[in-house]
Amino acid sequence: MTDFFKGIAPIKYEGPETTNEFAFRHYDPDEVILGKRMEDHLRFAVAYWHSLAYEGGDPFGGQTFLRPWFGAGMDQAKLKADAAFELFDILGAPFYAFHDLDARPEGATFAESKRNLEEITDYLGNKQASHKTKLLWGTANMFTHRRWMSGAATNPDPEVYAYAAATVKAMLDATHKLGGQNYVLWGGREGYETLLNTDLKAERAHAGRFLQQVVEYAHKIGFKGSILIEPKPQEPSKHQYDYDVATVYSFLKDFGLEKEVKLNIEQGHAILAGHSFEHELALANALGIFGSIDMNRNDYQSGWDTDQFPNNHPEMALAYYEVLRAGGFTTGGTNFDAKLRRQSLDPADLVLSHVGGMDTCARALRAAAYLFEDGPLEAARKARYAGWEREGAKAMLAQPLEAIEKAVLENNINPQPRSGRQERLENLWNHYL
């Protein structure tokens, strides 16, 4: 036990009228929505890196947070784990997620780093055995250390590729041992700064083979979870190869992995790619590669990935509607890839940021579920495409152009535009919100 969260009791649901800031207003884990408990719909996870490892820095300034577990030794790593599970208990969080570097200190050699990871994995396993919170997903940090400055799987140096492969193997082993339900690959530096020194074809080929090797090893060890890629268009690289959902799907198809790998989609990354979050979710569902989500928000004035906690439930409702249309989460969940502002110094800030985010998501899910259950939006969508249910329309897709032209001439086809009813559907959406 630590005393970092001393005096903060577990957060309970008290309803929308409560004035207690240390209570959930909208997130009731046991509320049944569409036949499933709210907790089981949302599957919240706390991000180890932002909540426990982040020191409060930004591009123009260094550390502002003072945490008792900050340091380079295994004692500090275990103290961090103690504090982590205290936070998870306060929030009632069913899951957490972590990078290797979040939980263990960096060693002088790979062998030392691996030993540290194995030791902290056992420690986390003991924590999981006596607490509710389990591992949603694990991943490897291959972007912070200077060795990764030119990428990991896409690095021009084959020794860095080898180090990356060994790093992912070790972290996949740890994730498997902890019962993680997913393993995520985020190519934080899998991209380029300038084409003047970049062989795009070679880097892309190496990235594809790397992912194939990861999938092969996951099968070999009997890992039953999902392998996920997290798209991101840029930052810190000028251009990253996993730009967005469409780009990643093309990549997976090229390397025969579209049936093996799904996506972990982040709200902030979708915005950086010039899309909406709901667009990326809908496309992933349409392509059969929807897996999990990272929930946060960007500051739309800043133009970069600010990783703030969500506070806009109408915006999030659009996202959860697409999650429901996808059939909901299986191995995935809602991971709060969000961090405190560097001026939010207190332990209470760390708790309440998650409370607000969980309430926002709960409110969004409830609104999305009401609309999904009643069905007017799906009915309107179906009506708009009803013409394609006719036998002649379906048969046309198999015909050559000259046969279609003949039918247009013989039947004097002269289609007239029909309203898309966008504003009426927006009014409908707002009614349910």
TrEMBL record:
Ligand binding (Mg(2+) 2): 266, 269, 305, 307
PROSITE patterns in UniProt: XYLOSE_ISOMERASE
GO molecular function: magnesium ion binding; xylose isomerase activity
UniProt remark on cofactor binding: Binds 2 magnesium ions per subunit.
InterPro entries: Xyl_isomerase-like_sf (IPR036237), Xylose_isom_bac (IPR013452), Xylose_isomerase (IPR001998)
Active site location: 99, 102
Intracellular or extracellular location(s): Cytoplasm
Required cofactor names: Mg(2+)
Cross-referenced SUPFAM superfamilies: Xylose isomerase-like
Alphabetical GO biological process terms: D-xylose metabolic process
Keywords of the record: Carbohydrate metabolism, Cytoplasm, Isomerase, Magnesium, Metal-binding, Xylose metabolism
Primary location group: cytoplasm
HAMAP family assigned to the protein according to its UniProt record, in alphabetical order: Xylose_isom_A
Quaternary structure (record): Homotetramer.
Annotated protein name in UniProt: Xylose isomerase
Species the sequence originates in: Fuscibacter oryzae
Lineage: Bacteria, Pseudomonadati, Pseudomonadota, Alphaproteobacteria, Rhodobacterales
Gene name of the encoded protein: xylA
